[in-house]
Each structure stands twice: as structure tokens, then as C-alpha cells.
Design goal:
Elements (H helix, E strand, L loop, with lengths): L1 H27 L78 E4 L6 E2 L7 E6 L4 H16 L5 E7 L3 H11 L5 E4 L3 H6 L6 E5 L5 E5 L6 H12 L6
Parallel strand pairs: 3-4, 4-5
Antiparallel strand pairs: 1-2, 1-5, 3-6, 6-7
Amino acid sequence: MNRRLAALLLPALLAVAGCTATGQSSATTPTARAERPSPFADCATLTRPPAATGAATPSGAPATAPATPGAALTGTATPGAAGTGDAPAASGAVGAGGAEAVLPGLILSCFTGGTPVALRDVRGPAVVNVWASWCPPCRKELPAFQRLSERAAGRLQVVGVNSRDTRTAAQSIGEDYGIRFPMLFDQGEALQRELGRNALPLTLLVDAQGRVRHTDATGALDDARLAALVRQHLGVQVSQ
């Protein structure tokens, strides 16, 4: 009798055990979440000159030109506190021996992935904006850089460098402010260290030969100020 009872109960016990195991396995298996698409443009275009200057800059030409001593803008930088951008900084980008500076030899990842970008391969004219989501002046001026990228399309490039930030925070700002220009990611603030600048926001104006013609750390830039800087230092006329 006991054997017959055990034979009848055994399948039921195994069935219960199987459901429990399956239920535990399902509960502990994480559900895959699709990542939000990046709001920023791909960085592949950064190493190609703007359309309007392509003929003047052969594809086989070096990304940077030899520095020309004595032709640099003068001025001594006065960095402000990081994240404030309140302290004015004199314009100019002067390298060793008074020669014009070029972009540092850094390689930064692109926010959208793909092949990392060597800064010295960025083809000018270009406006490079270094920013962070936690910096109020940075957030204030980002829309002006987006408008500049649209108004000067084909004549200069606008490049963002997100510094000392998280990808999540930077992506949220990009989505909220409608920022679409290419974005490089510099989590360790390597670019600022190379430039000897600790203020944010920081803007570099780079000519077609890869020379940094002007560095600005005076605070949030608006449309008028950006247009004036681009006209003065890069010779590009931008409507406001």
C-alpha cells in the first residue's frame, strides 16, 4: 500500500519542484533594456574638412601645420574656479617659445561609439566647446553652439567635449537642449590638463591649419558673442 501511494505522489512532487525551479530562474534573469539612442551626431565627419573649405585642404594634407612663431595672439590665461566660468581669461593660444598652439595630441572616445578621434585630426575651421552637465554656464550656452552649428554648416565644425561628467547626465542634457553636433567624451579632463585650463565652459577656435587661434573662458557665450569670435578669429561670417 505504501509503495502504491509513493508511486502516485512522486510525479506530483516532481511537477511542483519543476515549477518552483522555473519560477526562481525567471525571477533572477534580468530583463534586457534597450539603451536610448544618443542625441549627438557621429564623429566620423570631424576628420573631414567642412565642405566649403575642402578644396583648400587636400585630404592627404597633415592635420596640423607647423607653428608660425610670432604670429600668435598674445595674452596670459587666468583660469577661474572649475565649473563656474566666471573668471575672465585673456584670449590667445600661445605655445612654447611664443609659437601658436595646436590641439593637444590626445585621442578621445566618441560619445556615439565607433573609432576614437585624435584631436589633431579634427579638421578646421572648428569651434570646440568643453563642457559638463553640472556646470550652469555650460548648460546656458549649449543652445547657442547648436544654433552656430546649424547656421555655419559646411563652413565650420562645432565639436563638443564633455569633461568630468557621466554619460547618463551628458545624454540627458543633450536630449533636453536638442544638441546634435558631434560629441567627444573626456571623463578624466585630459584636454583641460593639456591646455593648462581648469575653468568651464572652455571654447577653442581652431583654424583650417589646426592652429588654436583663440581660447575663451569668460563664461557663457551667446549668439552675438559667438558670431563675433568666429568672424574675428576664423574669418567665417555667421548670421544671428
